[in-house]
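BUG: 3D viewer hangs when loading the predicted structure for this chain

Environment: internal workstation, default settings.
Expected: structure renders.
Actual: progress bar stalls at 90%.

Input used:
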Amino acid sequence: MHIAIAGNIGSGKTTLTGLLSKHFKWQAQYEDVDTNPYLESFYEDMRRWSFNLQVYFLNSRFRQVVDIRKRTKSVIQDRTIYEDAYIFAPNLHAMGLMTTRDFENYSSLFELMSSFIQPPDLLIYLRASVPTLVNQIQKRGRDYENSIRLDYLKSLNDRYENWIETYIAGKLLVIEVDNLNFQKNAEDLGLIIEKINAEINGLF
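Structure tokens produced before the viewer hung:
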């Protein structure tokens, strides 16, 4: 079984991936952030590095999905390949931070790759307001994220909502995280686990 967690920067994907992996004994597949050679450069100069960053993520996540489908154990994935293609890359293009030529090239690559992969069996979307995102980003204290603009986060949030509204590739569970603290509150985590169990039982 392939479960994936989607959500904006700072929504709690990585934290929840770890907690659910531990609870359900699923293998965790994390986003390639710490070893990404473009991420820091991207936040310093988005226009210059946007295409490189998105192609790197596209390649990394395509390899992840191919690997996940080969495994015999259930896997929970931190962020999906679809978020790059439907949210981050189009947003960079719309903001004038990725040229039309690069965006069309990127989109063509994604179309080809997506024809070879299956969507997750369950997609969990973490919905968070911009103030919640900013608070969580500040808490984790990554230096390169200090320059993230509010309008950038809001634009991403709007695109996430549009994507989720039209998502029909598989089962979808939306979790409102503004009033949850699943990292420190066992009850909040328990509520999420209950909802996931209900969705998983419906898969079989």
